[in-house]
Amino acid sequence: MLSRQLTFLTKLTSLTLVGSFIFFNSPHLLKAEIINSSIKTKRQEKNSSRNGLPVNRIAGGSRSSCLANNHRLVALVPEENVNLTASNSPKLFFYIPATKNPYQIEFVLRNQNDELVYETSIDTNQQSGIVSISVPNSVNFKGLEVNQNYHWYLSMICDPMRRSHDLVVEGWIRRIELETAFKKQLQNSNQIKQAELYHQKGIWHDALAALAEEPDASQWSELLDSIGLEDLAQQPLIQNAHYAPWLHRDRISTYTQQ
């Protein structure tokens, strides 16, 4: 009987010691778990901010006081972080909705170091349409460099005294180098075929620019439908004869490429 009691007490003492060890050390274990979780979260946030570039292809505020209807300012680009071009002087396309009065539209291009490289402004004619903006070469700026990201903004200035009311779309563009074989394919193709080839390669800006040179209603609609903007397929390109010319005022930055 005494032997059984001693055995029971021995087991109870062992359990008590183990429980005490866990109890007194659990704050340290919990703290370590919290630290590890925090480090993991920060690492994920860092990776997310590194890869996530701001993109906003449709301007907010469909009830803006400067618009004549419920249409919105739209950049004709896919919803991707960076869209591609093979040109050092690419064209970007935007849908400009009808406005109640003439307003100024501002286009800004910055390099990946956030340095201004190009800026231009456009006076609207109150009518809706799709307008293209080209990034020109200059003495200081030789155009987009290969494998470099550029951040662009397009703003409709509804009230110059309250720029916080601007309608703004923004995105990123990156120039890539074409393979020799692909260049030969382009040389032997018309504009419509070139647009198809560019689109297959995911070179969006050049696909749209090529098709705009020789607009084909079916191809144009199909191209915009591929990025969810089929509603804009019937909107006229701004260079159509019945549209008054839009006035451009360019300003090339003094930023000099190295």
TrEMBL record:
InterPro entries: DUF928 (IPR010328). It holds the Pfam family DUF928. It comes from the Bacteria. This is DUF928 domain-containing protein.
